[in-house]
Amino acid sequence: MFLVFSLMAGAWGYLCWKERHNVHNIHYLMMVLIVFRALTYLAEAGMQHYLRVTGDPSGWNIAFYIFTFFRGIMFFTVLVLIGTGWSYVKPFVGEKEKKILVVVIPLQVFANIAIIFLDEASPVRVSWFEWKDMFHLVDIMCCCAILFPIVWSIKHLREGAETDGKAAVNVEKLTLFRQFYVMVVVYIYFTRIIVYLLQNTLPFEHHWMSNAAKEIATLTFYLLVGMKFRPHSENKYFKLASDAAV
Q1: Which among 129, 108, 126 is positioned nearest to 118, based on CA atoms?
Q2: Cβ contacts of residue 118 below 8 Å, gap of 6+?
Q3: Cβ–Cβ contacts within 10 Å for residue 78, how many?
Q4: 74-107 pLDDT, tens digit each
Q5: Which of 241, 246, 79, 92 is nearest to 160 (CA)?
Q6: Which fold has domain 2-238?
Q7: Where do transmembrane segments lie in this chain (predicted)?
Q8: Cα angle: 59, vertex 208, 39; to 5 degrees
Q9: Domain residues of the chain, as ranges?
Q10: pTM for this prediction
């Protein structure tokens, strides 16, 4: 997966350079997210290799935690900013969206890091499972919270399509946000619920199937979002209103 996301980062970087006149700030953040995702896979591979060979992660676990931390921050930041239309529909982030970021991101990062440490700990007590389930629930709640900015954007565009003279453009943007909403919902449902059920029902020797399903879903989600929001000269979704204020 490291090679796959490295190639994806290279392709995205080339696309941003090729369409540099149509690139917005959100595209740079998406690039950073892909890089952190690739680095997370690299650190995880190094950690697993040294654990098999020497029994000690040799510092790769620290790199893995650091990259996972920043990947979690970037992932939810990018999703919220895309959902608000920041930099390609409007050049600012509203107060409601800022509150979502302030609440969701720290909770999400805390939940992810806690789950990592719990995975490394020995489940010698029942409380271990209770804490693991609680942090998983927090993760799901954070994922659901990021849907609000998308819903607000859909509502705003629907109202705009009915009142202003740019109904056609707003309808096109509305279609995009609806598609993005569906993609996020499906991704959250599959990776946070279906994969979790697979992990807790499959025999130990088949646990790789749940991990493979999660990785395939993640790769598919990244590809679809990248295709929908890629910089392109004819992409009407990235036309900012000339009278928008920062």
Answers
A1: 129
A2: 128, 131, 132, 135
A3: 20
A4: 888 888 888 777 655 555 566 776 777 777 777 7
A5: 241
A6: Rhopdopsin 7-helix transmembrane proteins (1.20.1070)
A7: 26-43, 63-88, 100-118, 134-154, 180-199
A8: 35
A9: 2-238
A10: 0.78
Site of tokens 């819903």: 151
Query: What are the distances in angstroms from CA 55 to CA 41, 61, 67?
Result: 19, 12, 22
What six digits make up the tokens of 94?
A: 């509203």
What radius of gyration do the chain's Cα atoms show? 20
Which amino acid is residue 136, in one-letter code? H
Indicate the pLDDT class of residue 41, thresholds 50, 70 and 90.
Answer: very high
Map 171-235 to HEC letters. Answer: HHHHHHHHHHHHHHHHHHHHHHHHHHHHHHHCCHHHHHHHHHHHHHHHHHHHHHHHHHCCCCCCC
Tell the residue number behind the tokens 């040294």, with chain if given: 50
Given a cut of 50, whether residue 6 has pLDDT beyond it is: yes
Contacts of 151 (CB under 8 A, 6+ apart): 181
Beta bridge partners of 86: 90
